[in-house]
Specification:
434 Repressor (Amino-terminal Domain), alpha+beta, 325 residues, 37% strand, Immunoglobulin-like, 5-stranded mixed β-sheet
Length: 325
């Protein structure tokens, strides 16, 4: 499912060893093949070579963004000797995607759970949709949405643009999904606004998918949109899709969050501000809309005016960023 936005109903994600991507991601579709795993090291090496940067120069670019990574760590990641594991390292990878021009998920989508090699499929505890979107039921019945557990999320990557006037302009979402059963052709995405007077955002499909029907509940501000995969997925097939919400003028925003109906092994969110950067930025989590916020911590904007949230093993519930102007 998707969040304030939510993510597809599975809204993330055990990374299994059955993914291939024509050796480039982002770009072409991720398709399931036999025992083929896209290599984070290979993708990073290709991106660095393509950019013509030395590791020292790359480290300097990261430092300019407020991220400290040693040259040896970059060398280990590039050769596959080690992989980014800690959340601070995931944050660095998100910034690497920007420096190397890969976009959200270009590298992080190739990182799975830390115990990827020994993980086994398990029944995933779901959080009821109504606890995250209380007004979802009428529209979901109209769409005849498939059961949430038909699709697992492997990774979710959000990129939100907040303009100089403090209004959100664009939300780009890239996610890697895996079919849990045969015959999966679609999933649903959600966006809910607190600005009821504003027109709903425009929903557009990007890579490896197409947009279906959309419905907006004017009372709650909830938008539901169908997203069709570019092919019918069999159990174990993997697809990487990209879509976006383009926002009309409205009120200034003070935060963004994603609502997950199930745990997600990997989630990143990058909020790009203009020259008008908030005075304070905080990460938070909630079990559901009625629960208190927990795990609140300060985030720091980089020199480019971006704040990044990077998390592993996200529980079902809500995770997001809020700020004070």
């Amino acid at each position: 499912m998707i969040s304030r936005t939510g993510v597809p109903e599975p809204t993330k994600v055990r990374i299994s060893p059955t993914v291939s991507d024509e050796r480039r991601w982002p770009g072409g579709p991720l398709r399931a093949t036999v025992d083929a795993v896209p290599s984070f090291a290979d993708a990073l090496d290709a991106a660095i070579s393509g950019a013509g940067l030395t590791l020292e120069r790359l480290r300097e670019h990261l430092a300019a963004r407020g991220v400290t990574v040693s040259r040896s760590a970059l060398a280990y990641w590039r050769t596959g000797r080690s992989l980014p594991g800690r959340e601070a390292s995931l944050h660095a990878v998100v910034e690497l995607e920007q420096v190397l021009g890969l976009g959200a998920g270009g590298l992080t989508s190739l990182l799975g759970p830390q115990d990827r090699q020994c993980s086994r499929p398990q029944r995933t505890p779901l959080l009821e949709r109504r606890r995250l979107w209380p007004s979802v039921r009428p529209s979901s019945l109209e769409f005849d949405l498939p059961p949430e557990d038909q699709v697992r999320l492997r990774s979710v990557h959000d990129e939100l643009l907040v303009a100089e006037d403090r209004q959100e302009r664009l939300l780009r979402v890239r996610l890697v999904a895996e079919a849990a059963v045969d015959g999966v052709v679609r999933m649903a995405t959600y966006y809910q606004t607190e600005d009821r007077a504003r027109q709903p955002p425009r929903f557009a499909a990007g890579h490896c998918c197409r947009a279906g029907r959309t419905r907006v509940d004017a009372v709650s501000g909830l938008l539901i949109a169908e997203l069709f995969f570019d092919r019918e997925l069999r159990a174990g097939d993997v697809a990487a899709v990209e879509y976006e919400f383009v926002f009309p003028p409205g009120r200034p925003v003070q935060g963004y969050h994603r609502r997950f109906t199930r745990p997600a092994p990997l989630y990143t969110c990058r909020v790009q501000f203009g020259s008008n950067v908030p005075e304070s930025i905080r990460r938070f989590e909630q079990r559901d809309l009625a629960a208190p916020r927990r795990k609140v911590e300060e985030l720091r904007a980089t020199g480019s005016g971006a704040a990044t949230l990077a998390a592993r093993e996200v529980r079902a519930g809500i995770i997001g960023v809020e700020w004070t102007w």
